[in-house]
Amino acid sequence: MAVIKHKEQRVGVFIDAQNLYHTAKNLYGKKVNFGAVLEVAVGERALIRALAYVITSEAGDEESFFEALTKLGIETKTKDLQIFSSGSKKGDWDVGLAIDAVAMAPKLDTVIIISGDGDFIPLVEFLKINKGCQVEVVSFGRSSSHRLKEVADDFIDLDQDVKRYCIGKREYRTPQKKQDQQSQAEKVTANNTQKSEKKNQNQQQPEKTQGKKTPQSPQKKNQPRKRTVKKPRSSQKKGE
User: Fold this and answer.
1) Which residues face 46 on adjacent strands?
2) Rounded to whole angstroms, how far apart are CA atoms 42 and 50?
3) Would you say 11 and 46 are in contact if contact means Cβ atoms under 8 Å apart?
4) DSSP letter at 158?
5) CA of 232: how far to CAs of 12, 64, 120, 221, 240, in Å?
6) Per-residue confidence (pLDDT) for residue 81, from 0 to 100
7) Planar angle of CA 37, 43, 46, nearest 5 degrees
8) Stronger pLDDT, 31 or 222, i.e. the higher one
9) How many independent structural domains does the chain possess?
């Protein structure tokens, strides 16, 4: 079923910045181009509010990042990274993002969740059934929850154009599926070559063994014959 997106639709965008940041870093070694992501998510529709949920690091050097988001018209909500006595760290905005989306839903026609986290599946289902909103998800398809993509009314896969949605000096990496296909093809090729080499060896082995046996067998047979023939001749000469 095609999703209708018209200019009069009121759109609210909720960005799980941590999820998007770490996904782009782990998959491609790059940073997210939030401007391009917001542009493709909203399209020509009316953007009511766009919020990015960020976890501040221990260094606290996110000021330039916040300024860049503000210039794009994205509001930022921050939360400190929690560090426990055991040394473990925790930081997420799942509950806060969900509460804001539910609270703003009556004023929105479309809710766009920019995240691939499967924890947002109940939120998507609630907004669709109880609030009557059209819910769309934007994320990198390779790392996104399959169920999240299924329950959403529309899903935009950022993996389809990494050069547009990611920025950085690092070269574009081949998607994992292509890498798996390439490695699998290489394994199949290696297995095939090994099998063919073994077949060639098996075919050559009997020929070599036969070649070794044929010269040895007449030598063994001739040697005793020569000895038996020589002895009686020498004894006959002495007797005479």
Assistant:
1) 10
2) 10
3) yes
4) G
5) 116, 111, 105, 18, 13
6) 73
7) 115
8) 31
9) 1
Task: Determine, yes or no, domain membership for 137.
Answer: yes
Cβ contacts of 112 within 8 Å, gap of 6 or more: 11, 12, 13, 14, 41, 42, 135, 136, 137, 138
Classify strands 82-83 and 75-80 as parallel, antiparallel or unpaired: unpaired
19, 94 contact by CB (below 8 A): no
Give tens-digit pLDDT for 177-220: 455 545 554 554 455 445 445 545 555 555 444 444 555 545 55
Q: What is the CATH number of the domain that holds 166?
A: 3.40.50.1010
Distances (CA, A) of 202 to 189, 198, 205, 215, 224: 20, 6, 5, 22, 35
* Nearest CA-CA partner of 36 in 24, 26, 22: 24
pTM for the model? 0.68
Check the CA dihedral 185-25-97-84 and report its sign.
positive
Does an H or E element contain 103, and which? helix 94-104
Residue type, 57: S
Domain that holds residue 77: 11-82+89-176
Report the alpha-carbon distance of residue 129 to residue 148 in Å, rounded. Answer: 15
Of the chain, the percentage scoring pLDDT greater than 70 comes to 64
Backbone phi, then psi, for 231, in 5-degree steps? -60, -50
